[in-house]
Write a structure and sequence with these properties.
Elements: H1 3-10, E1 29-32, E2 40-43, H2 65-73, E3 91-94, E4 102-105, H3 127-130
Antiparallel strand pairs: 1-2, 3-4
Length: 131
């Protein structure tokens, strides 16, 4: 069976695949569950800061970022989907792949600021507690 025959016989229903005639991005939003960081709402688009990749056929698609968040990721603290958008100013450990772990602060700007603390991070009141 050739590639074309395989597509037409078995995979004709899969949208946005090599077998599909639908090759345009939907521009809709969906959730990506990462293995090494918090899940996020991303857009099915070609270029741009929120573009991720083609949405898979099984993804729930939403018209807006807000709709994706409110349906799936309202529980993720300190994310773009959270109503908690203030930095905690608390400290947490970051485990790097290519260097030693370090204590960093969940803050906007400054020498010890790293990024938003993710929902699963253990937060500490001070640098000393973190270490």
């Amino acid at each position: 069976e050739s590639f074309g025959e395989c597509c037409s016989n078995h995979l004709w229903w899969v949208k946005n695949s090599r077998c599909s005639s639908e090759t345009e991005h939907t521009l809709k939003w969906y959730v990506v569950y990462h293995t090494n960081k918090d899940p996020e709402c991303v857009q099915d688009c070609g270029t741009g800061p929120d573009c991720y990749s083609w949405a898979e056929y099984h993804e729930d698609l939403y018209e807006s970022f807000g709709e994706c968040c409110s349906n799936h990721l309202w529980w993720v603290k300190n994310s773009r989907c959270s109503s908690e958008t203030e930095h905690t100013l608390k400290w947490y450990v970051v485990y790097h792949t290519n260097k030693d772990p370090e204590c960093v602060q969940d803050c906007g700007t400054g020498p010890d600021c790293y990024s938003w603390a993710e929902y699963h991070e253990d937060l500490y009141e001070s640098f000393g507690e973190c270490c």
